[in-house]
Amino acid sequence: MLIDVGRVEFRAVEKLRQSFRAGVDCQIVHDSILPRRLADPYLLTVGGAVAGYGGVWTKYHPGRVVEFWIDAPFRGHRTELFRAFLARSGAREMEAQTNIPAMCEYLHEFGDQPVVEKILFRDGGATALECAGSSFRRRRADDEGPEGEWVVEIAGDVVAAGGVLTHYNPPYGDLFMEVSPSARGRGAGSYVVQELRRVARDRGLVPAARCDPDNTASWRTLERGGMTPCGRLLAAPIRAEFLPCLATGRG
Description:
The protein is an alpha+beta fold. Helix content is about 20%, strand content about 35%. The chain has a 12-stranded mixed beta sheet, with helices on both faces. Strand 2 (about 40-45) and strand 3 (about 50-55) form a beta hairpin. The longest helix is centred in the last third of the chain and has 15 residues, at about 190-200.
């Protein structure tokens, strides 16, 4: 079996990514990395036939596998293809979302002692939170305080703000928010999460979010605002027994 792995321009793997994304029923946290040229794309072929693609971070996490996908007719050779991809790309670590099972299979087979980098959230049930004396509105040019397209105002002050980011796989929109230190513990954070969920749905988006695993305040705020944990973003170094095959480095 003749396997070839070559670094290519993004356009060469764009259609393959569409197939990968179509099979994923969740927000892809790092969906924009390859299109934004923050990772190198690699095309995989078997006997000259296109079999799949992979991506390796070049910025922020250099040398980390961010995506890997094999087309159905070639999945019986998934292990050989992944090992060839590692050897060609020089990747020494990888990441995977637990709610994207195929990537997790590679991480558990080739990775060593994965750690949780992010807690992932999906839209949850209905909420009816109120924040006494507050108003939720679009940001004005003269507003001060936390940054975001939408704000929570109390007594003339912006105490919380946030927005919905859309550089993720459609139809997912990523919620973000910030609360002024003086206003924390008063319900403004969970209230803005609730209202941002509504904004996202009004735009035809599916709300999603994430936070650091040790940020219990954000975790609780997201849950109170109606978001539900749905996965983890894991990262792991490649296991030692696979490192000798990486000696050729990236090219």
